Amino acid sequence: METTAPEKSSSPSPRNQNFVSSAPDSADTHIENEDVKHPDVEDEIKEAPVEHEESSSAAAGSDAGEKASDLDSVSDEIDQFLSLLSSMEDKSTPPDIPDYVEVFCKLVEMQIFTYDSGDSSARFGCNPDDDSRFLESVNRISKLTNVITKFCSANSYYAVSLNQTSSVMQCAMNFLENEFHALLEDSNSKRLKKEDSNVRALKTKQPSFSSNSYSNSTSNRESSNGLPESESDHPEEDSSPHSPEVVARLNKIATAMISGGFEAECCHVYSMIRHHAVREAMSKMGFEKMSLDDVHKMNWDHLEQEINRWCSIVKETSKLVFTTERNLIEAVFSGYPSIYQTLFKDLARSVIFKFLNFAEGVSMTKQALEKLFKVLDMFEVLRDLNLKINKASYSDDEWENELKSEICTPASRLGELAYCIFCDLEGSIKSDTGKTPVPFGGHHPMIRWIINYLRVLSDYKDSMEELFEQHQKSKERHDETAESDDHENDSKPPHAINNNNKNHRNNQNQKNKKMSGFRAQWMVIMHCVDQVAETKSKLYKDPSLRYIFLMNNGRYMLQKIKESSEMQELVGDAWMKKWSSDLRTFHKNYQRETWGRLLQCLNQEGLQVNGKVYKPALKERFKNFNAMFDEIHKTQGQWVVTDSQLQSELRVSISAVIIPAYRSFLARFSQYLDPGRQTEKYIKLQPEDIENAVEELFEGSGHLSMARKRT
Amino acid sequence: MPATDYNLGRSILGIRRDQVHTMEGSQGVSSLELELETFQRQVTDRFHDLGSVGPEELLSLSWIRKLLDCFLCCQDEFRAILFNHKNLITKSPVDRLIAEFFERSVKALDVCNAVRDGIEQIRQWQKILDIVLCALDTHRSLGEGQFRRAKKALIDLAIAMLDEKDSNTTVAQRNRSFGRNNVGRDHRSLGHFRSLSWSVSRSWSAARQLQAIGNNLTAPRGSEVVATSGLAVPIYTMGSILLFVMWALVAAIPCQDRGLQTHFSIPRQFSWSQPILSLHERIGEESRKRERKNACGLLKEIHQIEKCARHMNELADSVQFPLTEDKEGEVRQRVEELALVCEALKGGLDPLERQVREVFHRIVRSRTEGLDSLGRANHHE
Q1: Per-residue pLDDT reduced to its tens digit, A652-680
Q2: What are the TM regions of this chain, as residue ranges (chain B) (predicted)?
């Protein structure tokens, strides 16, 4: 091998010399003249040394095949020359530069020209064989350039040759860079189309939880979050917009550029385009650049929408970055871990930083009850982002720590805000001084609001518990530093006090372990609700209605709590039991208040004088009974018991008390009334009538049903 | 010179001294007074120190970092004063002044974000410069191809820097034609990926933000000083420092709609007025220099980038191959210059960015603390 190369180079043909002198200086003009020069090169190849003639003629059938074999044979020569040069210890007396170096340069230029010719079937990527041959050539030419530079100072021919090889190399790298750029960009537009449809699904408006109107809001976690769990919606595999072929091509180009020393350009183009792509995707999702000033001035309705949008964008984008983009980077730069790690970290860092500003802004807004869930949503989104960073770690502590501390700052501020809002709830409940009773004993809007609020909050139980813990810790830390500060100023030895304090605190901690800080506060709120029900019930003058109100609202709370296992867990069995027994007491009291009095009419005492039934008293009893029952039927028909189970429980218990008593009263005393007119006048109700009437109680529409009956 | 300033500074507090003494018990007040005087003196010292640099160092990366250090120190001392006198800050009219100050400081946060984007921008330029350095590695012989590579990177740099100067939509148009004329059909401009300046909306303006920070920032009258037990003075001082530091950042670092017209009128009796006003004057002069008039930032290193790029372009246009020894020497020299700038950027941008973040966080923290104590007081009332 090494012996043949110098032999050939020692006999340059005159035609070759000609070719060199006529070669234009710049690569650009080379390209433009290529079609003119082409035949020359062909000639050149055909007159190449004898041993290649065979392969040339063998491939003469097709133009492409011919070119390929030309390139193959020249490439072999170049490889031999390369190995000769690199084996030379003495750099001062290099061999002459063989002609095929120039031929090789021409062939590479020609290939670039063909790729660029505009003929779509000849583009890069259409013919894998040509492409890999081309990439090999690029590799060869960069090696060639590198080797030649080492001999430039010794031999001026080498300097001339360096101009040529380096220009062709620059030209080739430029071409690859453009190709790389175009491939990455095309993929962008494809992905954007796809994302378009995803985004539309995200933009559903969520019901809002507003505190100022204790409205009928029954928002639950799904709707307040506004997002279907998108992780499961789009399996991660098919989110990549790049076909495996494109990725493979990108990888080949990147490898060629990096091994040719063009790492900087390659990474620059890559990160420019991918950063841009991610941002474009974000703005398609509706991400808006917002200054803190903007956030500061925004009203809550608007801000709430922005928060919903922000949460979904952060989730989607972090999935995009941590899965799709990361896979792409690792595939394109496989074999270069340090490069792909740097690229990925830069991308993640820059994208994440864009998110944080809005979170900072929201964390600085004033606290208000209606903000709690949105603030918690944001807190959780940031927490999940932190987890993603944990998982993505390339064991680079600096990057990880920087990102985490950047995320932590707004996250902990949001957490503190949520904490304060929730602790504020107690005060807002207590400050309510409404004096209007809810008509007909129905659900009190404030109770309903609080319970629904708590119902939503129970879904954030874990986060809230974490926040209470954090708050407690930072408070303890604060206390401790304050304590030690005190001691520094104290002249007495502080140990005794210190230990006492610590012991005391430990004891307390132990006690608190049974009930988390969050749960403790939660129970405070439950107690408040109880108080609200109690206070509001006192607004009713009619004790029966008061009990109906208490039952209605108590049952409502109980039902809501039973619907959610989180709530049940938070409230605890003891409380539930106590509440159920309270409800039973209310029921009993109601029975006594309303039906106990009615039963008095059916009391047998006082009806008999000297062992005989005293008719006027009997008549009076019937009259009273009828009137009273009518009155109850009228008023309590208007009362509302929305819970159907409670309604039927009440009716059953009423019927069970009143009907047998009435039946037996009738059986015993109806005979004393004269049949006909008198019976008709005093016995207006049959037991069945009473049963029917009881069925009409608590419908909230007493008036209507009565009216209907009369017509 | 500084000594007389301190006396002037003392004299404003001095006016107050007698009056306050008659109003409140003397013990607490005199310690407050001492704190306030110390604060004024420290602020003055710090800004004198900042002003003591030569024209070469002014507005350099290291100087900007010093400026931010100075801000952080002043902010800390200011915070300590507020913290030590919680009882005073909840009283009218101090509470109003404090609330105004916090409003002002929130506006500075957006400047911090914009500046951070600007730093990112410079970092991109530095990456392009790295390509030039990589192309013209002087340890090897250089051929035409290497110069073309450098030239291409320089065009990318020119586009990236031009892009920043006027962030209008017309720029994209200009880029395209710029690219076409200079680099031939193959060159795809990366300039239209305005990768950064992304934290704020398109309509955001640094100039307007500075104006908002400086809104209603006036020196307290004597009666106000008395009514606030002197606290009006540090609040005004900190407000002025905030405005000046933000203004200087905007002057130095590329950001959206820079405008340096901010006017500072600080009464002479404040001892720190002289060093701040003189810095304001010097930076203003710098911005009016012909070669810097259209600069995207007055940062010294940006100027150096521009200078190096220009030299390098001229050089790349003039080289003939093979390189003469003279030329080779010149190339080596230019590359060394460039390497120095890159080195300074590499070493300085990251810490600067962290510092800007720190400024951001400190402002937020002190605002939260301040509002907390104001809010708590309101609850108790």
Answers
A1: 999 898 899 888 888 888 888 787 787 78
A2: 231-253
- The domains of chain A are located at 26-171, 184-200+241-428, 443-485+519-585, 601-711
* CATH number for the domain formed by residue range(s) A601-711: 1.20.1280.170
Cβ-based contacts of B142 with chain A (< 8 Å):
149
CA A211 to chain centroid: 25
d(CA A336, CA B61): 33
Please tell me whether residue A699 adopts helix, strand or coil conformation. Answer: strand
CB-based contact (8 Å) between A293 and chain B?
A: yes
B106 vs A25, A276, A292: nearest CB = A292
Domains A184-200+241-428 and A601-711 share a fold: yes
Measured between alpha carbons, how far is B349 from A341 in angstroms, rounded to an integer? 21
**B250-306 pLDDT, tens per residue?**
999 998 888 888 888 899 999 999 999 999 999 999 999 877 777 889 999 999 999
| Alpha-helical regions (H) of A538-572 | 543-563, 565-571
d(CA B144, CA A578): 91
Fold classification of A184-200+241-428 is Monooxygenase (1.20.1280)
Q: Which of 197-216 (A) contact B at CB < 8 A?
A: none
Contact in structure between B136 and B150 (CB atoms under 8 Å)? yes
Cα–Cα distance, B13 to A193 (Å, whole number): 67
Average pLDDT over residues A184-200: 58
The verdict on a CB contact (< 8 Å) between B106 and A293 is yes
Give the residue from chain B lying closest to A292, CA to CA: B110
pLDDT > 90 in chain A, percent: 32
Q: Tell me how close the Cα of A573 comes to any Cα of chain B, in angstroms.
A: 36
A/B interface, count of CB pairs below 8 Å: 126
